Amino acid sequence: MKAKLLILLVSLSLIACGDDNDDDTTPTTPTTPTTPTTPTTDAASKALIKEVSGIVLRESLADGLVDSLVYATDEARDGAKCSSGSYQKTADSITFNNCVGIFEDEDKGSASGIVKFTRVNNSSSDYEFKDLTVTFANGESQLINGGLNVTETTTTAIISVNQIKAVIKEFDTSKKLRTVNYTIDHYKLIWTPQDAKNLKLQLSGKVAATGGEFGDFNVAYDNTNSPFFVKLDANENIVSAPYAGVMTIIDLKNNQNITTISTLNDQKAQYKAVVNGKVLFDESKNWSELLDY
Q1: Around Cβ 211, how many Cβ atoms within 10 Å?
Q2: Distance between CA 259 and CA 33 in Å, rounded?
Q3: Cα–Cα distance between 177 and 33 in angstroms, integer?
Q4: Are 207 and 183 a contacting pair, CB within 8 Å?
Q5: Three-state DSSP state, 275
Q6: Which one of 18, 143, 193, 269 is at 20 to 30 Å from 180 when CA atoms are compared?
Q7: Contact assessment for residue 85 and residue 65, using Cβ atoms and an 8 Å cutoff
Q8: What is the dihedral sign for C-alpha 69, 64, 152, 197?
Q9: Which residues pair with 267 in a beta bridge?
Q10: What gap in Å lies between CA 261 and CA 247, rounded to an integer?
Q11: What angle do CA 141, 213, 102 make, to 5 degrees?
């Protein structure tokens, strides 16, 4: 399950010249987006909802933080080389020392810290991240602690997270370096090829953050009962946006705050947010815009 969204975002950027604005659907088992802890304006609520939507959608298409941790660790286990720095491998761990070119390779992230892995059985492995730090030349950084499990069979791959904590230093829209604390738990991504060209993706879980530019959030998300379906190429790379499926996000502090992203086709989705029981927006959006939030 080493596929990445290599071609998808490029393809979508070529599609993204269309207009924006239309309705919705909700999965039977909803999940949720959120609004600022103390929302002051509709604009503030919209900004936070967009941020949360982008995080969840990237995770649902195997292009978020969790998948990047698995992908990079597997690359190192398979012998990928650092462009600078190094790592040391033992039978059950990898220690990174300023290794550039494996974690966040496009942005030349420099990784230090330890990843331990335990083989549960022939199809399942546990990964534990201990003070894994990825730093970037511009001053941004990620500090990762926690664990996950990867289980692969001939018909499916599942990534499960009990809990991962990430302390991320990132620039906000005013170019201020901000420290945001994220917690991911009860995460489950199920990757099920339907045939050589079509893939079913089911994601459920929770994510919380404090210290963000647009406010704190604590949400659950789920598309298990209405999974995303996407296209694959011959190398199992995802090469389309979803052409079916609905993602629901629910604010765990106020279950009247619900966001749904309902597939219209592989170019557009219906994007709807309800805050305090009232519709904040309900519009058709290009996938390229949604994935860029």
Answers
A1: 14
A2: 5
A3: 25
A4: yes
A5: strand
A6: 269
A7: no
A8: negative
A9: none
A10: 5
A11: 20
Cα(224)–Cα(29) distance, integer angstroms: 7
Q: Which of 287, 293, 285 is nearest to 240 (CA)?
A: 287
pLDDT (tens digit per residue) in 214-264: 999 999 999 999 999 999 999 999 999 999 999 999 999 999 999 999 999
Sites in the chain below the pLDDT cut of 50? 2-40
Query: Tokens for 168?
Result: 């991320």
Cβ distance 166 to 143 under 8 Å? yes
Query: Could you give the CA distance from residue 67 to residue 223 in angstroms, rounded to a whole number?
Result: 17
Tens of pLDDT, residue by residue over 16-51, are 434 444 444 334 343 344 443 444 478 999 999 999
Is residue 129 within 8 A of residue 144, CB to CB? The reply is yes
Q: How far is residue 91 CA from its own chain's centroid?
A: 29
Question: How many Å apart are CA 113 and CA 95, to the nearest integer?
Answer: 6
Give 245: exposed, middle or buried? Use CB within 10 Å, 0-12, 13-18, 19+.
buried
- Measured CA to CA, the distance from residue 144 to residue 138 in angstroms comes to 19
Backbone phi, psi, residue 285, to 5°: -130, 145
Sign of the CA dihedral 35, 274, 185, 119?
negative
